[in-house]
Hints:
- Chain A is of the alpha/beta class.
- Chain A has helices spanning about 5-10, 55-65, 85-90, 110-115, 130-145, 160-170, 190-205, 215-220, 245-255, 265, 315-325, 345-350, 370-375, 395-405, 425-435, 455-470, 480-485, 510-515, and strands spanning about 15-30, 30-40, 45-50, 70-75, 80, 95-100, 175-180, 210-215, 225-230, 235-240, 275-285, 290-300, 305-310, 330-335, 340, 355, 385-390, 390, 440-445, 475-480, 490-495, 500-505.
- Chain A has 3 domains: about 5-95 and about 175-255, P-loop containing nucleotide triphosphate hydrolases (Rossmann fold, 3-Layer(aba) Sandwich); about 260-355 and about 440-525, Rossmann fold, CATH 3.40.50.300; about 370-440, no CATH class.
- The longest helix of chain A is centred in the middle third of the chain and has 16 residues, at about 190-205.
- Residues about 1-15, about 255-270 and about 520-525 of chain A have low confidence and may be disordered.
- Chain B is mainly alpha-helical.
- Chain B has a domain at about 65-295.
- Helix content of chain B is about 65%, strand content about 5%.
- Chain B contains 14 helices and 4 strands.
- Chain B is globular.
- Chain B starts with a strand and ends in a 14-residue tail after the last strand.
- The relative contact order of chain B is 0.21.
- The interface between A and B is large, with 48 and 31 residues.
Amino acid sequence: MPERSDDSAVTAAPGGAAVTMRGITKRFPGVVANDRIDFEAASGEVHALLGENGAGKSTLSNILTGLYRPDEGEISLYGEQVHFDSPRDALDAGICMVHQHFRLVEPFSVAENVVLGDHRGEGRSFRLRRGAIEQKVDELSAHYGLAVDARARIWQLSVGEQQRVEILKALYRDARILILDEPTAVLTPQEAEVLFVTLREMAAEGRTVIFISHKLHEVMAVADRVTVLRGGRSLGTVLAKDSTTHTLAALMVGRELELGATPAGGVAARAAGEVVLELEHVWAVGERGDPALRDLSMDVRAGEIVAVAGVAGNGQRELAETISGVRSRSGGALRMSGRALRGGDPREAIAAGISYVPEDRLGTGVAPSLSIASNLVLKSYRAPPASHGPLLSLGAIRARAVELISRYSIATPGPASPARLLSGGNLQKVVLAREFSGLPRLLVAASPTRGLDVGAIETVHTYLREAAAAGVGVLLISEDLDEILVLADRIVVMYEGAILGEFEAAGANVAEIGLLMAGARAHDED
Amino acid sequence: MRIERRLHQPRWLILVVPAVSLVVALIVAGVVLLATGHDPFSTYRELFDAAFLQAGALGQTLTQATPLAFTGLAAAVAFRMRLFNIGGESQLYIGTITAAAAGLFLGGSGGPSALVIGAMVVAGCAGGAMWALIPGILRAFFRTNEIITSLMLNYVAGTLLTYLVFYSESYWRLTTGVNAKVFPTSKPLPNSAIWPGLTIHAQGGILLPLGAGIALLLALVLWLLNSRTRFGFEVQVLGDSVRAGRYAGMRVRRKILAVMALSGAVAGLGGASQVGDFAHAVDGDPNGLQKQYYGYTGIVVAALARYNPLAVVVVAFLIGGLQQAGNTLEGADFPSGLVGVLQGIILFSALGGELLVRYRIRLGRRNPLPAGGAAA
C-alpha cells in the first residue's frame, strides 16, 4: 500500500494530491492488467511509475488518460472525483500523455500536429493560423529547450525529435498533468539530462509529471517519489532519495539483477575474426533529400560487437537501412565477406546473411495484424520448410512458431494470435527469434532494447552476446551509452552522417564519447 | 450509450450481426412502405418470391449474381492488399470488348466450341488485366492514387464501349443488313461463341450459366491462393504493412502490378461471361450494361464478404436476388425510386452492422464508477 499519508509532507509538493487513483482494476481477456492499484501523484512533483513490461504501467496510464475505463476503482483530480468517457475528457481535465509509440500524423508538420485535437485554443478556429501556431511552438521549444523545427513534417524527423513534438503538444495545451511513457529510450545521456531539466522545470511550475520508466538511475535522477508495479499490483510508493537502484530493482523484478555487471573487458577476450561487413565512402540520401550518410567508412568483424553511438537523427537509421538494403546508397561501396552488394534490395541483403532488427518494431519489424506464426516466417517463407514451390506449408510454419515461442519464451496465447497484441518485450522477442534463427553472418540491431524493461533488456543483451560468440558480426546502433559500454567491443561515434571517432570499448572515455556525440569536433562552438 | 472497440471478436457475431441487420432493415423499410401506402408483409413476400421462388426467378437472380460474383472477387483480390481498384466496372467493359472480339474472330456456325469459349475467357482476362494495369503501373512507379485513376478510367471505358457501337464502324458493330442502317447495332456472336448453360429441372427450368460455375471455381482457387500460397502470404503482409513487407525482401512494385492485373483479369472474365452467357454481343448502349453498375455493386459485395472469396459468391447471390426482385417489383404503383430506397436501406444496414462486429455498444454504465462525467 502507498505510504501516502506522510509522503506529501516530505516532498516539495505545494499543491497536494493532483491525481488519486484508488482500487483500480482492469481485466483483459485472460489477464488482470491492473489489480486494485492505488496511486497518488502530487502537484509539483515528478512521480516515477516503475515496473517491468506487463507490470500494468501502460494500462494504468491509459486509464488515467481516458483510453480505457477501469472495471473497478475511482479516480480523483485535485480532490474531485472524475469519470472519463474518452481521452478527450482527460485532455480537457489537463492530462496529457507522451506515448511510447507516438501519436503523430506523419504527413503533417510539427505545428499542425501540436494543434491537432486541441479544440480550445488555436485549434478551435476554423482557419488554421499556421504562423501564430508556429510562433507559439517556437517559443515553447526555446523556453523548454526542445529543439525542433515547427515547419518540418513528422516523417522527416528522428524518433528523438518526434518525442519532443509530443512533449510540445502537451505544453501547448498547458497540461497540468503530464505522463511520459519511457521517454528517455530514444535519447542520449546528454539529451536525457536536458529532458530531466525540462521535466523538473515543469514540476517547479506546479505541474505533475508522471514518468514511466524502468531505467533505475533515471528514476533516481529525476523522480521525487517512485511507485513500483509488478504483475499488475502496486508494491507501494517510496521516496527516491530514500532508495537505491538496488532496492528498487529488487522490488521491481522480485529478484536481484546483475546490472551491467559484465564489463566490456569480459568480452574483449573474444577473438575478432575476419571482416564481415565493409562500408567504403558510403553516401546515402535521407527522407528530406539531404545527405544522411556522408562519406562513411567502417567495418564489422566476425564475432565482435561494434556499437554506433550518437544522438538520434544523425544518420543511424539511414546507416542501418542502407546496410540492410531498405535504402539505396548514392555513393560508395558496401561489401559482405568481400563480396560487393548492389544495395537497395532487402532480399539481396537477407541472402548475403544480413539480419536486421529495425528500430520500428510494430510496422516494420512485424506486420501488426498478422499472426505471430506468420511474423516468425516473414523472412524465411520463400524456402523449405516454410514453403515448397509456390505453396506454403502451414503445418511446418506452425510447428516452427511453436518451437520459437517456447525457445524464446514469448508470452502469447498461441501462434495464431496477432502480433499487435504482444507487449513491447515480447514483440521484440518475435523479431529477435526470427532474425537469429535466420543464421545471419551480420546482425544489425537498431535500438534493440528501446522501451523494454530490465528483464527483457537483459535477455536481448544475452542474445546479442551469444550471437557474437557464435561468430556473427554484430552492429549495435543505440542511443543508450550505458548499453553500448556494457556490450560493445568497439565504439564508433556518429554525428551528422559521418563517423567522428572510434574507440576500443575497454577504457573508453565516456565524457569524450559524449562530446563527440554532440559534434564537438565538428563545431567547437557547440 | 457508448461505443467501444472490441478487444476480441466472438465468432458467432459474424453470423448474428448480419441477421439482426437484415431485421432492422426490414423494420425501417416497413415504415417507408407503410408511409407510401404499401403493405410491408405482402411486399416482402413478393420480394422474396421474385428473387428466389417464382418461376424463372432463380435463373434471373443468377443472371444478376454472376457478374456481381466476378466484380466482387475482383475487388476482394485487390482490396486485400489495400489496393483500392474501383475499376472493376471498366475492366468488365473491356472484358466484354476483348472477349467479343475473340468470339467474333474465331466463331463458326456450329454449336458451342470449347476452343472459342476458351479463347474468349483468355481474351476477357487479358483485356481486363491490361486495363487494370494502367492504374497499377501508375501506382507502382509514380505513386499515383489508384482509387482516382481506376475510377476515372471507368468513364473512359464506358465512352469507348458506346463509341465502338454507336459512333464508329468498328469490328464490333453490325454494318450490313437493313436494321443496321437505321439504328446502330452490335454484331451478334456466332453460335460457337455462345456459352452453354446447365439446365436444372425445377421452377420450370433454371439455367445455370457457365459463368456462374466458373465464378464458383474461381472463388475456390482465389481462396486457396490467399491462404495456402506464398503469393497470398505476401499480399497479406503488404496489405497490413508495406514497410514490413519491403523489409522482409518482398518486391512491392511487382506485387502491385500482379495484384492489379489479377483483379482486372477477374473482372474482365466477368465481361467475357457477360457476352458469352447473357448479352451475346457487346452492349454499347449507355443505358444498358453501363447502368447495371456491376463493378460498383461488386465493391459492396466484397466489403460485405470481408474480402473472403468464398463469401463473395454467397453475398453476390443474395445481392443478385435483391436486384432481381427490385426489377420485378418495379411497376405502375411501385416506382423505381422506392425500389432503390428499399435496396439502399438493406445494403446500408448490412454494411452498418459490420461496425458492430468490430465495436460494441454499451448501454448504461456497467462500471461501479459513480457518474462523475460532469466533473471532467
